[in-house]
Amino acid sequence: MILGIGTDLCNIDRIEGTLARFGDRFLNRVFTEREQKKAASRPRAIAATYAKRWAAKEACSKALGTGLRMGIAWRDMAVTNLRTGQPVMHVTGWAAERLAQMTPPGHRAVIHVTLTDDHPWAQAFVVIEALPLTDATPGVA
Q: Global pTM?
């Protein structure tokens, strides 16, 4: 069952300007160390990398039904990538508490995220799904 859906569109040039103006102050407020390392590994696309992650955090806060004004911190949501390149959203702090509150008993929440960019835009979609827990062991009757 779908628990929440969120989307966001971010202007890459706006993020680039914010990086130029506020630098580490902005980065340390919004992005985890791991997200910063990912962006640093892409020097030709650093602003786009941050813009996609910004959009993902905004989209996740919407999927959680709260937005960023209701207690979720930017760093409570973080995007990493699997070895295949697939983006994965991790939540901690208040975001994790909110996710637990909205997950029905007997279910586990899965956060799906997709990112894209085409200068000057970066976009993210987040879908939070509740999957039923099963006690059955495969192949055992």
A: 0.90
